């Protein structure tokens, strides 16, 4: 019999992407092979995201579409995983509207995928196994990495911050850090395989290590990871301004490897809104933090996340957000319209004091307009500068161009000689053009890194 094939559809953040890689690794070990499309798969896993209503709607839409495929191929197995599976509302919806689904499991038991699949195959009913809380951190799970150039490594799971709009503490549970040793071992193995650009991951990496004995912090971990030969760039995501310590700023400023890209989600610029979001900082203390970052890391590239239309947000509150954006001058911002989430305090306030939808949209547009202008100006200022970039692959839009990335996480497009393979190499370029979302450049010297071992990766995780 030919090997069964799997297809994983991933929604949401890097943590979900990483979870999908671990599911893919387990499936490889079970003898499955990846499929490039869902139509050819014998197993489809939908790894869902619950952070905003729009992400949920996409997943519901996709699950709905799969009904037809299941009718055509009754032996197809459909599994729903990820953050939405942790919500009781999703289970109720699936049972009522999506009987074609065979298996539902959550974020805390994805390491059980092989057993869960066996159960689902033996059962005529939908198998639902969602843990309400996390067990111990599980080490040594297999993994099938999606990206051939950059590698992502979990360091802390969960979040204890309980921002009042956010569902993550409910879907991902309490903060649990991995010990330093297995992280160092994983990154060393990746470096030996040739990965030079490593990102350590967590819902809130700045909390890393507080739950270990003896306690550790992110700066301690990064200092250990920097010592690993072969690692050229070290990144971390995502951060909370509240725990972004001076020690960490100093370590980043002094480091040759920890990239000078600092992502500090601010969410809002108004103090009353920040208070109701439970962010535990003020506009002033945030601006002070940014000033300390700029002082110690003068070439820092700053990015952020911002929510508009939080319940009760007034025009004055929103103007404070615009003012903060003008003061910080972020290189880029991820901007979102507030989306009420089940179980969160802000969802109750949304019932009493919502910002009308047209006002939410208008604020998002005004915020984006301001940020795009600032991003464009920041990129213009790079024209003429020399940058070292990592070549990630051929541009999706133009096969005569390499898509590369700077240490500050900006995309640079450079001309490509078809005969030369630069993938995974660090190349010096001069920036020759700048748009809002990307730069263009010209290669100005030979690659500074040797050819990396080829890790040609099929892309089954979409
Ligand atoms: N509505 C809108 N945006 C949200 N985010 C988190 N929860 C919500 C919500 N309920 C945004 C925050 C966070 C990013 C990952 O998603 O800005 O930093
Ligand atoms: Fe959500 Fe706040 Fe935790 Fe980030 S820090 S995951 S926004 S609760």
CATH top-level class of the largest domain: Alpha Beta
Unreliable stretches (pLDDT < 50, length at least 5) are 458-462
SS-based class: alpha/beta
Bound molecules: 5'-deoxyadenosine, iron/sulfur cluster
- CATH topology group of the largest domain: pyruvate-formate lyase- activating enzyme
Q: Sheet bearing the most strands, described?
A: 6 strands, parallel
Label the CATH architecture of the largest domain. Alpha-Beta Horseshoe
Strand order of the largest sheet: 2-1-3-4-5-6
Q: Helical residue percent? A: 25-40%
Computed over alpha carbons, the radius of gyration is 23 Å
Distance between the termini: 26 Å
What's the β-strand tally? 19
Helical element count?
A: 13
Residue-averaged pLDDT: 95
Structural features, described:
The protein contains 13 helices and 19 strands. Strands 2-1-3-4-5-6 form a 6-stranded parallel sheet, with helices on both faces. By secondary structure, it is of the alpha/beta class. The C terminus is likely disordered. The chain starts with a strand and ends in a 19-residue tail after the last strand. The chain has 3 domains: 125 residues, Methylthiotransferase, N-terminal domain (Rossmann fold); 231 residues, tm_1862 like domain (pyruvate-formate lyase- activating enzyme); 58 residues, OB fold (Dihydrolipoamide Acetyltransferase, E2P). The site of 5'-deoxyadenosine has 12 residues, from β13. The site of iron/sulfur cluster (SF4) has 10 residues, from α5.
């Amino acid at each position: 019999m030919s090997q069964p094939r799997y297809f994983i559809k991933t929604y949401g953040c890097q943590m979900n992407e990483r979870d999908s890689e671990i599911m893919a690794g387990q499936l490889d070990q079970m003898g499955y092979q990846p499929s490039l499309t869902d139509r050819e798969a014998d197993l489809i896993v939908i790894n869902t995201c619950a952070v905003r209503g729009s992400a949920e709607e996409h997943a519901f839409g996709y699950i709905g579409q799969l009904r037809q495929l299941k009718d055509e191929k009754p032996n197809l197995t459909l599994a729903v995983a990820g953050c939405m599976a942790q919500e009781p509302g999703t289970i109720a919806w699936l049972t009522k509207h999506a009987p074609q689904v065979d298996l539902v499991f959550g974020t805390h038991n994805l390491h059980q995928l092989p057993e869960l699949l066996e159960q689902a195959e033996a059962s005529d009913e939908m198998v639902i196994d969602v843990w309400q809380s996390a067990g111990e951190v599980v080490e040594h799970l297999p993994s099938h990495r999606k990206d051939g150039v950059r590698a992502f490594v979990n360091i802390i799971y969960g979040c204890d911050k309980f921002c009042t709009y956010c569902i993550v503490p409910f879907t991902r549970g309490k903060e649990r850090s991995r010990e330093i040793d297995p992280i160092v071992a994983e990154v060393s193995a990746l470096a030996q395989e040739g990965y030079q650009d490593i990102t350590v991951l967590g819902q809130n990496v700045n909390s890393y290590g507080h739950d270990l004995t003896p306690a550790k912090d992110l700066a301690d971990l990064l200092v250990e990871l920097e010592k690993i030969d072969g690692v050229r760039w070290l990144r971390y995501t995502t951060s909370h301004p509240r725990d972004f310590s001076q020690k960490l700023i100093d370590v980043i400023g002094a480091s040759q490897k920890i990239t000078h890209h600092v992502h500090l989600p601010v969410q809002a610029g108004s103090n009353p809104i920040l208070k109701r979001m439970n962010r535990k900082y003020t506009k002033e203390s945030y601006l002070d933090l940014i000033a300390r970052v700029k002082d110690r890391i003068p070439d820092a590239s700053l990015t952020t996340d911002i929510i508009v239309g939080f319940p009760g947000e007034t025009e004055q509150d929103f103007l404070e957000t615009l003012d903060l954006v003008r003061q910080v001058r972020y290189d880029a911002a991820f901007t979102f319209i507030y989306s009420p989430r089940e179980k969160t305090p802000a969802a109750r306030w949304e019932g009493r004091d919502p910002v009308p939808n047209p006002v939410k949209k208008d604020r998002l547009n005004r915020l984006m307009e301001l940020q795009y202008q600032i991003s464009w100006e920041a990129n213009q200022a790079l024209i003429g500068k020399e940058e070292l970039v990592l070549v990630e692959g051929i541009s999706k839009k133009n096969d005569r161009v390499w898509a590369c990335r700077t240490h500050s996480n900006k995309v640079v497009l450079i001309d490509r000689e078809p005969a030369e393979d630069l993938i995974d190499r660090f190349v010096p370029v001069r920036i020759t053009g700048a748009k809002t979302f990307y730069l263009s450049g010209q290669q100005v010297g030979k690659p500074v890194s040797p050819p990396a071992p080829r890790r040609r990766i099929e892309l089954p995780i979409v």
